[in-house]
Amino acid sequence: MHPISKKFAPIFAALALCSVNIHAAESMRTVDGIKPPLTYVEQTETQDPKIVWILFPGADGKVDAHVQNGELRYRKKTNFLLRARELLNAGGNACIAADSTSNVERFKRLAAHLKFRYPKAALFLLSTSRGTEHAAALSPHLAGTIAGIVYTASMHTLSEVDLASVRVPQLFVHHASDPCRNTPFESAEKIARNAQAEFIAINGGISVGKPCGPFSHHGFNGVENDVVDAIKCWAKRQMEEK
């Protein structure tokens, strides 16, 4: 079986996406005027990105970006989204790794800060696992703020949110063999269907470690390229159709 299959969405042509490792520079930045301080890790190879990906990792969602002894320190480096940053950045994009949050004011301040820095860029919110709960909580308030929301390895609790009324394009990406009990594949299918959102099923890869860990199928281990290519194709369509 091909590693990607689609449901509830029209078939679109695959793009030839570069997957070369770029090793873009990392830096810590702070959004002014917010308490507690809102810091994030930025990774990019360009000063004029086409897309800025705002990443919401799973578990406790805390990236905790800070400088210690003159060195940038942060958590969640093994999380799927943070592992995939160089792939997401290929083609002239930027990744922002921030603490996952459900606070609308804090997120909108972050988005406004990024739009000021990168006025030509489209902002997309990418979430995974428990980070999808925060993204879903924000979703009713993000029309006109971001270009789209992506839920990967989404939590079953998203069924409690009225995602069908969200006025921002939404994409669900889920591994068909996700072993985590909190993110069953069938639940994600149903949530996407009820939300009238696009759904992409992923197959293949390698599953090791804890069922809900970053290197099981839950964390798209071994199929990062396939997942990122699918997300970037979808994002490109949203920008073209806007």
Could you explain how this protein is built, in words?
This protein is α/β, with parallel strands linked by helices and about 240 residues long. The chain has a single domain (about 5-10, about 25-240), classed as 3-Layer(aba) Sandwich (Rossmann fold). Helices cover about 25% and strands about 25% of the residues. It has helices at about 80-85, 85-90, 105-115, 130-140, 185-195, 225-240, and strands spanning about 5, 25-30, 40-45, 50-55, 65-70, 70-75, 95-100, 120-130, 150, 170-175, 200. The strands form two sheets. It has a nine-stranded mixed β-sheet with strand order 1-11-10-9-8-4-7-3-2, with helices on both faces. Strands 5-6 form a two-stranded antiparallel ribbon. It is globular, with a radius of gyration of 17 Å. Residues about 5-25 have low confidence and may be disordered.
What descriptors fit this protein?
alpha/beta, Rossmann fold, 242 residues, two-stranded antiparallel sheet, 11 strands, 6 helices
